[in-house]
Give the backbone structure.
Amino acid sequence: MAIVCRICATPITTPPHNVTEMMYGSGEVFQYYRCQGCDCLQIGEIPDNIDKFYPTDYYSLSQDFAKKKSDGLAKKFKNLKIRSTVLGDSFLAKTLHLLAKSEPHASLTGTGLGLDSHILDVGCGAGGRFFALKECGFNNVAGLEPNIPHELSYDNGFKVYKSQITNFKSNHLFDLITFFSSFEHIANPLETLQGVKMLLALGGRCLIKIPVFPSLAWEMYKENWVQLDAPRHLFLYSIKSLEILVKKAGFAIQRVEYDSSAFQYWGSEQYKQNITLKSERSYGINKERSIFSKADIKRYKKLAKKSNAEKTGDQATILLKVV
């Protein structure tokens, strides 16, 4: 099968990598091709039945976060931690980080947001990340997700709209549009970024958190690299391929931060040993029944930190500006 890179249009002549679906363990095999021109690794053929690989228990579609209750003090502490992290109150954020786990909203630090900024999270699933922003005082946040049965409205006023960004209609423009682990799932990335640009206010930016290729984890595990996530991840972007793509859409890369975690190593090691991500033996499901010791995980965390510092981690957050 003749393959042309969907990012830079280079004919791909290298042999495919045969990658097995391992989140659920269906055993189906998909071919991925590495472009010699831009170094993007991409699926050869997008399955016609791609929806079947996003079952109702797919993690981002769960609404359990809205059911969790916490007492007044715990909730205030959590909200203060998120607010200080996003708004960039460095002294307070650092102090709070000493008392609690690393805040997942840290990717938003330094994006110039305020409590009244208009923010849209694309491919947000049921909306857990931005639901938390709404809870802690960010007034104008919303989510966008095509793979939900209907629009979601939560008690705190947060909404997730059922739509693709290319046909989303909004009565206001956005200061920041984000893709947290969703951009790699998108089949039409150029049209998507063009849609983003149309929805940004003057000075608005786009933030993308994605797995990046190549990486140390890829070199170690190849087809067992957990971030391949066949066939859900359609593109595993290199920074070079992302630069080409965003330039076509009228953007430039403003900032790249490598922020991969130990998951790249323990997840890939599980796949190498034929343990699916949803298995009862998976470290993500049952730590006590997993194949890893505490020393193993500590070693993987240390390696992830080193990989990020050397820009060989398998995940990065990229901030885009309009040019």
